[in-house]
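WARN retry 2 of 3 for item q-0093 after timeout on previous attempt; input resubmitted unchanged.
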Amino acid sequence: MGAGSVAGGDLRLRDLGQLTVGWLILALMGAVTFLYGLSVHASLLCLLVKPLPVLALLGWLHDAPPGEYRRWISLGLIFSLLGDVLLAWPGDLFVFGLGAFLVAHLAYLKAYLSDCRRLAVLPLVLALGVGAVLLGILISNGLGPLLVPVIVYGTAISAMLWRALARLGTDVPKRSALLAAGGAVAFVFSDSVIGISRFVMPFDAAPYVIILSYWLGQWGITASAFAHHNSVSNR
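OK item q-0093 returned
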């Protein structure tokens, strides 16, 4: 390998590092500004900056190894962006936001299925248990016309959690499996707090708990693509 090739490689690595720092700055600026907007009840400001952290993750994801896994994670982030806007938009667009995140979870589910097909009974039981408990709590407090949409959404996110956990202990790279599983757990936790604060027991810290765990979940899911390879595990 010649000196020119080495120098070119160093330049590409430097450029990638600068891009990563740029996306990180955008994410932090958006996150801090959104949290400030929450604290002063600035709805318009929150609407404008809420998508920035996920937008930064989408840009960062472009540097991950290409393949089916990355494509499905990208699609999930795109629909998450749409969901962020719909849920922050003035007026009650909760059902539409729910629909956008439903598609996002199905995209993540497809990503996890792209490299792991084993049944994984224990993760399935855990995911079903979490979903059943949460839906039971929400239904017992009355969902009205949102009953069917919430059940459909709860089923989808439980399936996403199952498939994320199913990748643990397989031939899938350990770092990718751990990041995706942690991200899925954080995402489920965030959505659980949304359900509890909206339908069961509102509490002042809910918006902060929801958004911070949501961002953590999206980061874990996105980061899992950087340690991924494109083979399929059935074990």
